[in-house]
Design brief:
Number of helices of chain B: 4
Largest interface: A-B, 5 and 11 residues
Radius of gyration of chain A: 13 Å
CATH superfamily of chain A: START domain
Number of domains of chain B: 1
Helix content of chain B: 25-40%
Order of helices and strands of chain A: HHEEEEE
Number of helices of chain A: 2
Strand content of chain B: 35-45%
CATH architecture of chain A: 2-Layer Sandwich
CATH class of chain A: Alpha Beta
Distance between the termini of chain A: 30 Å
Number of strands of chain B: 7
Distance between the termini of chain B: 29 Å
Largest sheet of chain A: 5 strands, antiparallel
Strand content of chain A: 35-45%
Oligomer: heterodimer
Largest sheet of chain B: 7 strands, antiparallel
CATH topology of chain B: Alpha-D-Glucose-1,6-Bisphosphate, Chain A, domain 4
Chain lengths: 91, 145
Amino acid sequence: MKNEQFVYVTYIRTTPEQLWQALTSPEFTQRYWLQTRQISDWQPGAAWRAVDPEGKAIISGEIIEIDRPRKLVFTWRNKRSPRLQRKVIRA
Amino acid sequence: MTKPKLVYTTYIRTTPKKLWEAITKPEFTAQYWGKMTNVSDWKRGSKWEHHNPDSEVWITGKVLESTPPKRLVLSWADPDDLKDKSRVTFALEAVEDMTCLTVTHGSFKAGSTMVKKVSGGWPRVLSSLKTFLETGRGLNIFCKH
Protein backbone atom coordinates (compact mmCIF):
# COMPACT_ATOMS: atom_id res chain seq x y z
CA MET A 1 0.00 0.00 0.00
CA LYS A 2 1.19 3.47 -0.82
CA ASN A 3 2.03 5.67 2.16
CA GLU A 4 -0.74 8.20 2.48
CA GLN A 5 0.14 11.78 3.17
CA PHE A 6 -2.17 14.70 3.85
CA VAL A 7 -0.95 18.20 3.10
CA TYR A 8 -2.88 21.31 4.14
CA VAL A 9 -1.83 24.87 3.41
CA THR A 10 -3.54 27.90 4.92
CA TYR A 11 -2.69 31.59 5.13
CA ILE A 12 -3.51 33.30 8.42
CA ARG A 13 -3.40 36.99 9.25
CA THR A 14 -0.99 36.63 12.16
CA THR A 15 2.73 36.46 12.91
CA PRO A 16 4.74 33.19 13.03
CA GLU A 17 5.34 33.84 16.76
CA GLN A 18 1.62 34.17 17.53
CA LEU A 19 0.82 31.10 15.44
CA TRP A 20 3.53 29.17 17.28
CA GLN A 21 1.92 30.19 20.58
CA ALA A 22 -1.47 29.05 19.31
CA LEU A 23 0.00 25.62 18.45
CA THR A 24 2.05 25.04 21.58
CA SER A 25 0.39 26.83 24.47
CA PRO A 26 -2.26 24.76 26.30
CA GLU A 27 -4.31 27.89 27.03
CA PHE A 28 -4.57 28.57 23.29
CA THR A 29 -5.09 25.03 22.04
CA GLN A 30 -8.01 24.30 24.35
CA ARG A 31 -9.91 27.14 22.71
CA TYR A 32 -9.89 25.65 19.22
CA TRP A 33 -8.53 22.06 19.34
CA LEU A 34 -11.45 20.03 20.76
CA GLN A 35 -10.78 21.61 24.16
CA THR A 36 -7.50 19.70 24.43
CA ARG A 37 -4.40 21.11 26.07
CA GLN A 38 -1.12 20.33 24.31
CA ILE A 39 1.40 19.35 26.95
CA SER A 40 5.14 19.15 26.23
CA ASP A 41 8.36 20.96 27.09
CA TRP A 42 8.87 21.28 23.30
CA GLN A 43 12.41 19.91 23.07
CA PRO A 44 13.61 17.30 20.55
CA GLY A 45 12.91 13.86 21.99
CA ALA A 46 10.39 15.19 24.51
CA ALA A 47 7.00 13.58 24.98
CA TRP A 48 3.98 15.42 23.61
CA ARG A 49 0.34 14.81 24.41
CA ALA A 50 -3.08 16.32 23.84
CA VAL A 51 -5.08 16.10 27.04
CA ASP A 52 -8.87 16.33 27.09
CA PRO A 53 -10.78 18.33 29.77
CA GLU A 54 -11.02 15.20 31.97
CA GLY A 55 -7.23 14.95 31.97
CA LYS A 56 -7.05 11.98 29.61
CA ALA A 57 -4.33 12.00 26.93
CA ILE A 58 -6.22 11.33 23.68
CA ILE A 59 -3.23 11.80 21.38
CA SER A 60 0.40 11.32 22.28
CA GLY A 61 3.77 11.29 20.57
CA GLU A 62 7.29 12.57 20.55
CA ILE A 63 8.90 15.79 19.31
CA ILE A 64 11.18 14.94 16.38
CA GLU A 65 12.24 18.39 15.23
CA ILE A 66 11.62 21.85 16.55
CA ASP A 67 12.75 25.18 15.11
CA ARG A 68 10.73 27.94 16.73
CA PRO A 69 8.78 29.64 15.19
CA ARG A 70 9.24 27.90 11.83
CA LYS A 71 8.96 24.16 11.98
CA LEU A 72 7.57 21.53 14.31
CA VAL A 73 7.63 17.79 13.60
CA PHE A 74 6.15 15.24 15.96
CA THR A 75 4.85 11.69 15.93
CA TRP A 76 1.15 11.20 16.45
CA ARG A 77 -0.53 8.24 18.10
CA ASN A 78 -4.27 8.37 18.48
CA LYS A 79 -5.56 6.36 21.43
CA ARG A 80 -8.41 5.05 19.29
CA SER A 81 -6.23 4.08 16.29
CA PRO A 82 -2.76 3.41 17.66
CA ARG A 83 -0.89 3.37 14.34
CA LEU A 84 2.03 5.79 14.63
CA GLN A 85 1.99 8.77 12.31
CA ARG A 86 4.25 11.74 11.85
CA LYS A 87 3.10 15.32 11.75
CA VAL A 88 5.02 18.25 10.32
CA ILE A 89 4.04 21.85 10.83
CA ARG A 90 5.93 24.45 8.85
CA ALA A 91 5.44 28.20 9.20
CA MET B 1 0.31 8.50 -14.34
CA THR B 2 -2.83 9.33 -12.40
CA LYS B 3 -4.75 12.43 -13.35
CA PRO B 4 -4.18 15.32 -10.96
CA LYS B 5 -7.10 16.54 -8.91
CA LEU B 6 -6.93 19.32 -6.35
CA VAL B 7 -9.31 19.14 -3.40
CA TYR B 8 -9.56 21.80 -0.72
CA THR B 9 -11.91 21.72 2.27
CA THR B 10 -12.44 24.55 4.71
CA TYR B 11 -15.00 25.34 7.40
CA ILE B 12 -16.16 28.94 7.50
CA ARG B 13 -18.27 30.58 10.18
CA THR B 14 -20.97 31.82 7.78
CA THR B 15 -24.16 30.65 6.07
CA PRO B 16 -24.24 28.85 2.69
CA LYS B 17 -26.18 31.83 1.29
CA LYS B 18 -23.51 34.35 2.29
CA LEU B 19 -20.77 32.07 1.01
CA TRP B 20 -22.59 31.64 -2.31
CA GLU B 21 -22.80 35.42 -2.64
CA ALA B 22 -19.12 35.79 -1.76
CA ILE B 23 -18.23 33.44 -4.64
CA THR B 24 -20.64 34.80 -7.26
CA LYS B 25 -21.02 38.55 -6.63
CA PRO B 26 -18.28 40.78 -8.07
CA GLU B 27 -18.56 43.33 -5.24
CA PHE B 28 -17.64 40.56 -2.79
CA THR B 29 -14.98 38.68 -4.78
CA ALA B 30 -13.13 41.96 -5.34
CA GLN B 31 -12.63 42.17 -1.58
CA TYR B 32 -10.78 38.88 -1.09
CA TRP B 33 -9.74 37.57 -4.53
CA GLY B 34 -7.03 40.18 -5.22
CA LYS B 35 -9.56 42.66 -6.69
CA MET B 36 -10.56 40.04 -9.23
CA THR B 37 -14.22 39.45 -9.99
CA ASN B 38 -16.33 36.51 -11.17
CA VAL B 39 -18.90 37.70 -13.69
CA SER B 40 -21.91 35.70 -14.88
CA ASP B 41 -25.66 35.39 -14.44
CA TRP B 42 -24.80 31.98 -12.90
CA LYS B 43 -27.46 30.12 -14.87
CA ARG B 44 -26.69 26.66 -16.19
CA GLY B 45 -25.22 26.95 -19.70
CA SER B 46 -24.23 30.61 -19.26
CA LYS B 47 -20.75 31.95 -19.79
CA TRP B 48 -18.72 33.02 -16.74
CA GLU B 49 -15.54 35.08 -16.65
CA HIS B 50 -12.87 35.85 -14.09
CA HIS B 51 -11.84 39.50 -14.56
CA ASN B 52 -8.95 41.57 -13.28
CA PRO B 53 -9.68 45.18 -12.17
CA ASP B 54 -9.20 46.40 -15.78
CA SER B 55 -11.93 43.96 -16.90
CA GLU B 56 -9.40 41.79 -18.74
CA VAL B 57 -10.55 38.19 -18.87
CA TRP B 58 -8.10 35.92 -17.04
CA ILE B 59 -10.25 32.79 -16.94
CA THR B 60 -13.33 31.89 -18.91
CA GLY B 61 -15.77 29.01 -19.01
CA LYS B 62 -19.35 27.86 -18.78
CA VAL B 63 -21.64 27.31 -15.84
CA LEU B 64 -22.15 23.53 -15.96
CA GLU B 65 -24.30 23.26 -12.86
CA SER B 66 -25.75 25.88 -10.55
CA THR B 67 -27.79 24.99 -7.47
CA PRO B 68 -27.67 27.96 -5.09
CA PRO B 69 -26.53 27.85 -2.33
CA LYS B 70 -25.25 24.28 -2.58
CA ARG B 71 -23.32 23.47 -5.69
CA LEU B 72 -21.64 25.35 -8.51
CA VAL B 73 -19.73 23.59 -11.29
CA LEU B 74 -17.73 25.61 -13.81
CA SER B 75 -15.52 24.84 -16.75
CA TRP B 76 -12.25 26.73 -16.44
CA ALA B 77 -9.75 27.83 -19.13
CA ASP B 78 -7.26 30.55 -19.95
CA PRO B 79 -8.86 32.54 -22.84
CA ASP B 80 -5.51 32.26 -24.72
CA ASP B 81 -5.47 28.48 -24.35
CA LEU B 82 -9.07 27.31 -24.51
CA LYS B 83 -8.13 23.70 -25.24
CA ASP B 84 -6.52 23.40 -21.79
CA LYS B 85 -9.91 23.16 -20.15
CA SER B 86 -10.55 21.90 -16.63
CA ARG B 87 -13.41 21.85 -14.17
CA VAL B 88 -14.03 23.50 -10.79
CA THR B 89 -16.73 22.41 -8.34
CA PHE B 90 -17.77 24.42 -5.30
CA ALA B 91 -19.80 22.32 -2.82
CA LEU B 92 -21.37 24.09 0.16
CA GLU B 93 -22.87 22.35 3.17
CA ALA B 94 -24.31 23.91 6.32
CA VAL B 95 -22.80 22.46 9.50
CA GLU B 96 -24.16 24.02 12.72
CA ASP B 97 -23.09 27.69 12.62
CA MET B 98 -20.59 27.01 9.83
CA THR B 99 -20.48 26.17 6.16
CA CYS B 100 -18.20 23.43 4.93
CA LEU B 101 -16.79 24.45 1.56
CA THR B 102 -15.10 21.89 -0.69
CA VAL B 103 -13.46 23.14 -3.86
CA THR B 104 -12.41 20.49 -6.36
CA HIS B 105 -10.34 21.45 -9.38
CA GLY B 106 -10.01 18.48 -11.72
CA SER B 107 -10.68 17.07 -15.19
CA PHE B 108 -7.37 18.55 -16.36
CA LYS B 109 -6.31 17.68 -19.92
CA ALA B 110 -3.16 15.60 -20.35
CA GLY B 111 -0.13 17.91 -20.14
CA SER B 112 -2.19 20.76 -18.72
CA THR B 113 -0.21 23.78 -17.51
CA MET B 114 -3.21 24.91 -15.46
CA VAL B 115 -2.51 22.56 -12.51
CA LYS B 116 0.76 24.35 -11.80
CA LYS B 117 -0.85 27.78 -12.21
CA VAL B 118 -3.68 27.17 -9.76
CA SER B 119 -2.19 24.85 -7.12
CA GLY B 120 -0.45 27.71 -5.32
CA GLY B 121 -3.38 30.04 -5.82
CA TRP B 122 -6.28 28.12 -4.30
CA PRO B 123 -4.87 28.02 -0.74
CA ARG B 124 -4.43 31.80 -0.92
CA VAL B 125 -7.88 32.52 -2.32
CA LEU B 126 -9.66 30.16 0.07
CA SER B 127 -7.72 31.44 3.12
CA SER B 128 -8.62 34.96 2.08
CA LEU B 129 -12.28 34.01 1.48
CA LYS B 130 -12.55 32.51 4.98
CA THR B 131 -10.83 35.50 6.57
CA PHE B 132 -13.06 37.90 4.62
CA LEU B 133 -16.30 36.20 5.69
CA GLU B 134 -15.24 35.87 9.32
CA THR B 135 -13.54 39.22 9.85
CA GLY B 136 -14.80 41.48 7.04
CA ARG B 137 -11.36 41.91 5.50
CA GLY B 138 -9.62 39.62 2.99
CA LEU B 139 -5.89 38.86 2.71
CA ASN B 140 -3.39 40.11 0.16
CA ILE B 141 -3.35 37.05 -2.08
CA PHE B 142 -0.63 38.47 -4.31
CA CYS B 143 1.86 38.57 -1.43
CA LYS B 144 5.40 37.48 -2.32
CA HIS B 145 5.91 33.97 -1.03
